[in-house]
């Protein structure tokens, strides 16, 4: 009689929820105690017929109350440990079937249990080889800490690998992608052209998205004859050159200059430094060489100097001048942080960080 009376009490929604909350605080299960990651939102691209298995990360939402919602990684046993009901075997079930099974077990304690099980996007493995600072295999999470989808881009992966080396041929990067048929798809990427398109159009959607199993190969640039390079640059130079000036200038973007124009002229053509935020003592000059390698030079700014290689070099077609931000405690507006030019600047810094 007493057991029946207790069952009726805890079958009331409010009492059952309170009991569940108290149980999870007083007697946390191993699965709860091991939570090191924030709760993530489910992937909207996961197939509803997906069969859960070992290593899958799932979110179990009980009553849609955040403190009763937690994230689990399915162990080799296939069972997760939940408050009050203990181990529940979810391996071999779809997320909906797992939710139904958990709801059935909670129905002993809760009158109308509301349970959902969501599969979180699994981590992806990317291999980076060739002329990067830290080649190797990288296991990456395709979700942000806030739970939103984050499509991993080529520049982001290169950044994680420490950035490219000066010997890298960035116009001939190869992505080898396995297909479902067992064959391999080869994707050739001209990273410099991609950067210039981003700078010209401001469309960050042109970034290359990497996928699970991709192998990114960054080859070594071939040797070049410096005398021949200088002669070709002088003989074949167009009457006007296109230069990118990005970062903390008044009119960031692409500027057209006469042949043999200098770095100082490019900065002035972009409106000059942003007086509030610009670090005006030095800038970076990024140049694509004839062998498709890239060099980065830090130039000390002196507007009073004439043309010289140290402080006011002659610019070539497709050079990029990067003006960085002065350290400041004053917060910038969200718009200033999120515009397309700043995104391109961030991409350049991430790719060429190790020069």
TrEMBL record:
The keyword Iron does not apply. Keywords: Signal. Residues 45-119 form the Polysaccharide export protein N-terminal domain. Residues 126-187, 243-290 form the Soluble ligand binding domain. GO terms for molecular function: polysaccharide transmembrane transporter activity. Pfam families: Poly_export, SLBB. PANTHER family: POLYSACCHARIDE EXPORT PROTEIN GFCE-RELATED. This is Polysaccharide export protein. It comes from Chlorogloeopsis fritschii PCC 6912. The lineage of its organism: Bacteria, Bacillati, Cyanobacteriota, Cyanophyceae, Nostocales.
């Amino acid at each position: 009689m007493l057991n029946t009376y207790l069952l009726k009490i805890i079958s009331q929604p409010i009492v059952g929820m309170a009991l569940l909350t108290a149980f999870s605080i007083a007697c946390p299960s191993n699965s709860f105690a091991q939570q090191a990651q924030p709760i993530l939102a489910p992937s909207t691209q996961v197939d509803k017929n997906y069969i859960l298995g070992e290593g899958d990360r799932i979110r179990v939402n009980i009553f849609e109350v955040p403190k009763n919602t937690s994230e689990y990684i399915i162990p080799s046993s296939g069972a997760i440990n939940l408050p009050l009901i203990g181990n529940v075997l979810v391996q071999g079930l779809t997320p909906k079937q797992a939710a139904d099974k958990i709801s059935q077990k909670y129905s002993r304690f809760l009158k109308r249990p509301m349970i959902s099980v969501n599969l979180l996007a699994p981590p992806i493995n990317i291999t980076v080889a060739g002329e990067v600072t830290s080649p190797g295999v990288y296991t990456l999470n395709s979700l942000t800490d806030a739970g939103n989808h984050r499509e991993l881009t080529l520049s982001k992966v290169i950044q994680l690998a420490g950035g490219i080396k000066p010997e890298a041929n960035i116009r001939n990067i190869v992505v080898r992608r396995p297909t479902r048929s067992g064959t391999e798809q080869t994707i050739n990427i001209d990273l410099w052209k991609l950067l210039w398109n981003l700078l010209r159009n401001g469309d960050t959607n042109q970034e290359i998205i990497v996928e699970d199993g991709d192998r990114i190969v960054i080859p070594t640039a071939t040797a070049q004859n410096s005398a021949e390079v200088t002669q070709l640059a002088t003989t074949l130079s167009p009457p006007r050159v296109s230069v990118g000036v990005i970062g903390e200038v008044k009119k960031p973007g692409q500027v057209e200059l006469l042949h043999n124009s200098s770095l100082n002229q490019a900065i002035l053509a972009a409106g000059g430094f942003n007086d509030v935020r610009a670090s005006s003592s030095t800038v970076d000059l990024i140049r694509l060489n004839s062998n498709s390698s890239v060099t980065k030079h830090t130039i000390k700014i002196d507007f009073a100097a004439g043309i010289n290689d140290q402080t006011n070099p002659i610019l070539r077609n497709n050079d990029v001048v990067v003006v960085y931000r002065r350290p400041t405690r004053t917060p910038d507006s969200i718009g200033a942080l999120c515009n397309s030019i700043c995104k391109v600047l961030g991409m350049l810094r991430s790719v060429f960080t190790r020069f």
